[in-house]
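Give me the fold.
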Amino acid sequence: MRYILQSIIILFTLPGMAQLYWSEATQVNPNTNSQQQRPRINLSGETPTVLWTEGSDHIWFSRMNSNGTFAEPIDLNEQNLECYLASYGGVDFAMEGNNAYLVFMTLPFTAAKIYLKTSTDGGLTWSASSQISLPDSIIPFLPTVSIDSDLQPHIMFMAYDSNYENPQFHVIKSIDGGLSFNNSVNASALAPHEVCDCCPAHLSIDGDDEVALFRNNDQNIRDLWVSTSTDAGNSFPLSKDIDPNDWFLNSCPSSGPDAVLENGSLHSVWMSGGSGSTHVYYSNMNITSQEEESILLNETGTNDNYPRIAGNKDTIGIVFQSNVENKPRIGFI
């Protein structure tokens, strides 16, 4: 059973002055027998829309009705393609007004493809799944999508070579609503060695400014890196390690970053175990000067992970999974 909390949130931006008003939980999907995971939410205007996955062949979507209930879920994998769907990645969608884009990756891994679906009516109807053309030398993994100011999709994905080695993060963008895409740009080229090969990334866009956030893997140092573009994703000439931890780990933590980009300021969050326990970190970076400061959040927490951030102007909020008395809990800052 999948639920969503309808909320009316009033945020006073003076320090310490925050009030949250929450409604009762609303049921999104009445099916209690399926293994559902990784819910994602976006707004179409003021209407909540929710995406979640099930198994390896179902991508469910529903939007809220005018009476506060949710519409009957629709399965967006209408071709029954075998998808890579995991708790930490595998399908993503972005929405701006009535324009929505959804990306997912198909199996098997060694012959993976990226598919795109689009909607221009807030998710009421969707296009058929269309395969995004990529060079045969690239095997894609963990796609994510963002929308630019012209309502065009930009997609970032992990790109392996034909031997399933040397993972890097590439960005492609469209100028025709997803019908075609430009040649891919390597957004992680300036980071040393290779990217962390099972960690999802994040792409933020604000006007011509575009930033790619990803966990790198420099001989098992798994710090968070930021690559910056000021020409709408055509190039990423700046790249910086914003993570002070130098976390040495010889396995993949399967945890990625999240960020808000606005007026040249990048607010980002991620998890690191560099201190000996997994904690959540926050960074504020000026993408022009590349000046940045990072702080540890929830210093007393243990096993903190999977942070998400949202905000507007001088108000931001961060949620993350934490551990209290050996039980998983959700923290908010």
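The chain has no helices and 26 strands.
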